[in-house]
C-alpha cells in the first residue's frame, strides 16, 4: 500500500465586488435609489455628482434624477438611477460596496 503525504496551505481570499451566494437577481430590477443626508448641500452635491459619474461610466443612457430637501438645517438628496438592464444596476451596486 502506498501512502501519500498531502501538504495543505491556508489561503486568504480577498474578493472585492462580489455577490453573496444565493443573492436573488430579478429580471427588470433596474431602479436604484439612495438617500444622501448632511448639513452642507455643496458636499452632498459633490457626493451625488460622483454617483452620477459612476452611473454614466456604466451606462451612458442611465436616467438620473435627484430631489433636494431641506429641513431644520439638514439637507437630503434622494438620488434615483434608472439603468437599461439589471446587470448595469448590479455593477453600479457592486462599486458602491465598501
UniProtKB/TrEMBL annotation:
Q: Name one GO cellular component term.
A: cytosol
Tree of life domain: Bacteria
Q: Which InterPro entries match?
A: DUF406, UPF0234-like_C
The signal peptide here is: none
- What family is this protein classified in? Belongs to the UPF0381 family.
Q: What is this protein called?
A: Uncharacterized protein
- Which organism does this sequence originate in? Parendozoicomonas haliclonae
The organism's taxonomic lineage, starting at the top: Bacteria, Pseudomonadati, Pseudomonadota, Gammaproteobacteria, Oceanospirillales
Amino acid at each position: 500500500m502506498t501512502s501519500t503525504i498531502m501538504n495543505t496551505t491556508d489561503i486568504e481570499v480577498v474578493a472585492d465586488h462580489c455577490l453573496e451566494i444565493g443573492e436573488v437577481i430579478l429580471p427588470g430590477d433596474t431602479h436604484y435609489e439612495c438617500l444622501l443626508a448632511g448639513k452642507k448641500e455643496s458636499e452632498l452635491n459633490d457626493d451625488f455628482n460622483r454617483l452620477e459619474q459612476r452611473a454614466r461610466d456604466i451606462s451612458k443612457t442611465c436616467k438620473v434624477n435627484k430631489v433636494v430637501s431641506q429641513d431644520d438645517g439638514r439637507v437630503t438628496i434622494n438620488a434615483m438611477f434608472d439603468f437599461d438592464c439589471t446587470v448595469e444596476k448590479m455593477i453600479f451596486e457592486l462599486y458602491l460596496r465598501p
